[in-house]
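Please go through this protein, sequence plus structure tokens, and consider how the sequence yields the tokens. Keep your notes short.
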Amino acid sequence: MKTAFTIIKWLFKTAFLIVGSFPVFRCGSSEEENTPVKFQGKVITDKDFIVLNDQFAKDSTTAYYKSRSFQYADIPTFEAVDDHYAKDKNKVYYCDEYREGQNYYLTKKQTILEIKSADPATFTSLGNGYAKDYKHAWLAGNSFDVKNVKSLTGINGYFVKDNISAYLNLKPIAGSHGKSFELIDQHFAKDNASIYYYGYTGEGQHNICILPCDRNTFEILDYRYSKDNQKVFFLGFTLKGADVASFELLEEDYSRDKNAVYFQSRKITNADPASFVVYEENGMFGHDFNYARDKSFVYMDDVQVTAADVKTFKVLGENYGSDYKHVFYKNKIVKGADPQSFNVYPHDFGDADAEDSTSKFHEGVKVTNEAVY
């Protein structure tokens, strides 16, 4: 029995050694070995070439941001921090790509900016172009002041915060409490003291303001409107006198309560809320504004079109409207226009914006030159 056990043990050990002497087979290993190294869409044959991420790479002599090389980088210690920042033991770099006006669609150019005041040892990315070291904060390579850089964290492409304050447009948000600050959605934020509305200003920056609301009853109605138990807000503005209980949203920046009608944050003088209707055609045609009506008047945004007949008025598009008697461009009568034969062209079509049976019109004015666009 002992002899049989010894033989079995010897066979097992021998089989293990034999199997162990063969290379382990891994699915796809040969395919991985044959897969060419690529950087920026080009196949790399240099065995010393190292791809650091989609934007940065290096070989034995040179570091690269896309197609551009670094002049004085320390290659052994060069590393990518994120898609825009890189560093070595001596320097920190911010890199970006841009296009020039006349060759905008043809040529991309890369820029490499050395951030001279940055400390490579403590430099880290916060994401979305933000970064910090032990002493400074940066956005796109530009430094800005924060109250507590050690606790600074990124929120999104617009906001960062530390334990003291939140920041927007590289400036502290007045009255904000950084540690508790958070975004509710794309237009509202909050901290332990306040509710905020923020929106794009059209100047490459956002605006933010504290809403004078009751936190416990605050409610978001849509991306523009919100309310609490006492007030209604449009963007960052209070709808003065609005009745919260009966307030409702209409189309195209209109709203109403039991007492009044509002366009954005403005009350429409003498508008009747019970009969107020927004023309559905606003969404069908190109317009710089909106048309609406009640039992007595037609409105362009919050302005009465006093000469318009409510019963026969219709929206024509491209800022035109008409009733049985007149054609209107915005809220003004188009002189000499025949409402029965008046026809509006969409922009970039036809010789002018509109025409009737005898004349052509451009932006509400009769024209004689048919080449007006």
Q: What stands out?
A: Residues 52-126 form one domain. The helical segments are 2-20, 29-34. The chain is about 5% helix and 35% strand. Residues 2-20 form the longest helix (19 residues).
